[in-house]
Amino acid sequence: MLLLADDLEAYDAAVALLAVHCAISLNDAIQVGSTGKRSRYESHVQTVSDLERICRSNRIDTLGIVHLKWLLTNKTAISYGDRRFTDTAVARDKAERFQAWAYSSFKEVLRVQEYS
Amino acid sequence: MYRNILSQDQLEARGKNAVADLLARRLIVPKIFFDAAWPTRKRRIDVLAVDRAGAGDIHVVEVMVGINAAMQSLTPLMLLPAHYKYVAIVNPGQFKLQEPILYSDDGLGRIGVILFEEEEHNQLVARIEIVPERFRVGAEVIQQIDRFTAKQHADIEIRV
Fold first, then answer.
1. Angle, to 10 degrees, between the axis of helix A88-105 and the axis of helix A65-73?
2. Can you tell me the distance from the alpha carbon of B18 to that of B124, in angstroms, rounded to the nearest whole number?
3. How confident is the model at residue A3, as a pLDDT?
């Protein structure tokens, strides 16, 4: 996403799409890492409630979830919309803020395993 | 004729800014610290970045002016606990660092080399000349960097 974001004019649609998909993947990773399974919901929007539940049970603030919600709400417009999506810079910002929250809040779950 | 000459400290500081910009673009939501007290309070690292908002690999960079200073920085840099280590050289002149001296004794890890270019509007841009290879880091270092990132305020980070 960041590489393409260097040329936002040319790749804005791809950047927005990658912003959504990296947030979805990170949400999945948190859920699998925390509970051992993915969300029971098919709908990405509904999986947010599972993430909120994990946060509550681990006493983690839910500040960053608002960014995931924004991306999921705009997913259809970004992926399939008839019109060109114009808020790509916001989508990138939302994805980065969700990542910052996720890696800070679920540090142990998302940490890359050390091989040494 | 007017010629703008920067002091050594200014050159280094400018280099640190450009290095921070490079790391911010290459890493995923990193926390970046200037003049970081790592791994002890007495030791200062020019630029320290921790990938993935503090959950990822540790990157340390020493910014040096001139090739001799860069050479001298390699031994202490080799001893620093970090996954990725770099020496960034401002004004290297016509000489280059020989690649074999960049490797750790056990071969697990190579110090990366960063050089600078002046682009349009006198913008200083850092670029990786020699790609670093990952060093081995013990579990106690991970605990130490967790304490560091929890206590220290990052100079550059993505806010939630």
1. 140
2. 6
3. 81
Tokens of B9: 């400290």
pLDDT category of residue B14 using cuts at 50, 70 and 90: very high
For domain A2-109, give the CATH number.
1.20.120
Residues of B with Cβ-Cβ distance to A101 under 8 angstroms = 53, 160
Q: Percent of chain B beyond pLDDT 70?
A: 98
Q: Is B9 helix (H, G, I), strand (E, B) or coil?
A: helix
Enumerate domains of chain B plus CATH numbers: 8-151 (3.40.1350)
Q: How far apart are CA A100 and CA B75, in angstroms?
A: 34
The verdict on a CB contact (< 8 Å) between A104 and B160 is yes
* Closest to B137 in 3D by CA, of B71, B79, B90: B79
Q: Tokens 């280590």 belong to which residue? A: B85
Quote ipTM for the complex. 0.83
3-state SS class at A61? coil
* Contact status of B157 with chain A (Cβ, < 8 Å): yes
**Vertex B108 angle, CA B107 and B114, to 5°:** 90
Q: Between B59 and A116, whose confidence is greater? A: B59
Distance CA B9, CA B19 (A): 15
Quickly state the pLDDT bin for B120 (edges 50, 70, 90).
Answer: confident
pTM equals 0.90
Share of chain B above pLDDT 90, in %: 90
A6: Cβ–Cβ under 8 A, 6 or more apart, which residues?
B25
pLDDT at residue number B128:
97
Q: Do A99 and B53 touch (CB under 8 A)?
A: yes
d(CA B134, CA B139): 15
Domain ranges of chain A: 2-109
